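Hypothesis: this fold can be encoded by more than one sequence.
Test: take the structure tokens below, design a sequence, compare later.
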């Protein structure tokens, strides 16, 4: 008990030093799993953690997009004040070092329940393809344990993440957020466009419906929902486990063959970007990217989110866009978390995704 009190004091001190990067309510899980013994590796020496990198954000109101202002702020500080009703509803920014751009809109929702994360993963290139997928899976397992330990019974989130390493992409998906790959040839024509996560976790999707039928849970599907939730997999929402909801991610590995002098992007987005009225959402994304291929990642992300809003999306709308550069040796990641029932679960994920992913990577390298 004395040792645990000393560890608690050490963690509290680190919390003060690192500006509450992890909220105190998450400490019991960190103690239980042993993460407290490696707090230094969780917090320090990060080349880039997107939440803490100071970014020049373009901030506006959804309904007054033309009247925007620039403000130098960290994404973490912006999110910390996100529930302030006076905060403008639209913002976009980029990490120039990583060629990652993002844009988020409240849309017609009062609160912004989406969260995003991005950063770098030094030494990721040392792992095999199997190990790379394994650390994604283990990171999500840890995040699920945190959600369970914090009583997130009726609040949850999707999780869609992609790690880019040279010309390889590794994705993990829980829920109905999406990852896309767009490849243009040297003439600027779209040579490949596809969704990287093949299955969206809705209870009526064929693969998910079959899983629920095998588990004897089909009777809990009502009006295309699993009880009251449009998802059949999520982080959090533990009260729905008895009805067939699971937290297991779908994992995938894709090798990108970039044409000579071609361009390629990965787009990560919540369902607010893709579930607009009509059936041409995927086509619209491909067309918009091709038409705006000379713009940077931030501008493309803004164009995509504003197009979804103008097309009738009533949800929060978030998108991250990053280019694929096979010559870039250090791996980078992008992730989106679409919260529901409140922003608590998505906030937990954006706070802990980077340190848990980094810690799991380091443990795998040492193994």
């Amino acid at each position: 008990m004395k040792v645990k009190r000393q560890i608690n004091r050490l963690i509290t001190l680190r919390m003060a030093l690192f500006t509450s990067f992890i909220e105190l309510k998450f400490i019991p899980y960190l103690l239980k799993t042993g993460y407290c013994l490696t707090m230094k590796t969780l917090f320090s020496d990060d080349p880039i953690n997107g939440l803490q990198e100071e970014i020049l954000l373009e901030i506006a109101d959804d309904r007054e997009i033309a009247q925007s202002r620039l403000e130098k702020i960290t994404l973490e500080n912006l999110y910390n004040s996100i529930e302030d009703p006076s905060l403008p509803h639209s913002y976009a920014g980029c990490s120039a070092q990583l060629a990652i751009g993002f844009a988020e809109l409240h849309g017609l929702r009062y609160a912004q329940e989406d969260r995003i994360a991005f950063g770098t993963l030094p030494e990721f290139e040392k792992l095999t393809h199997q190990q790379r997928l394994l650390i994604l899976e283990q990171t999500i397992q840890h995040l699920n344990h945190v959600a369970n330990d914090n009583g997130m019974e009726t609040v949850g989130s999707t999780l869609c993440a992609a790690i880019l390493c040279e010309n390889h992409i590794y994705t993990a998906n829980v829920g109905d957020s999406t990852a896309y790959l767009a490849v243009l040839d040297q003439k600027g024509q779209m040579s490949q466009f596809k969704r990287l996560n093949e299955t969206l976790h809705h209870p009526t999707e064929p693969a998910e419906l079959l899983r629920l039928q095998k588990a004897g849970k089909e009777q809990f599907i009502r009006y295309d929902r699993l009880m009251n939730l449009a998802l059949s997999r999520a982080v959090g929402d533990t009260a729905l486990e008895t009805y067939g909801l699971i937290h297991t991610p779908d994992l995938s590995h894709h090798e990108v063959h970039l044409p000579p002098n071609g361009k390629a992007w990965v787009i990560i987005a919540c369902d607010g970007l893709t579930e607009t009225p009509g059936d041409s959402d995927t086509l619209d994304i491909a067309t918009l990217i091709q038409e705006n291929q000379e713009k940077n990642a931030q501008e493309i992300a803004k164009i995509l989110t504003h197009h979804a809003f103008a097309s009738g999306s009533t949800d929060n709308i978030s998108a991250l866009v990053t280019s694929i550069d096979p010559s870039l040796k250090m791996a980078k990641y992008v992730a989106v978390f679409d919260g529901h029932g409140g922003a608590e679960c998505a906030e937990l994920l954006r706070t802990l995704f980077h340190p848990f992913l980094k810690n799991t990577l380091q443990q795998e390298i040492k193994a």
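Residues 1-45 form one domain. Residues 1-45 have pLDDT under 50 and may be disordered.
Hypothesis status: open.
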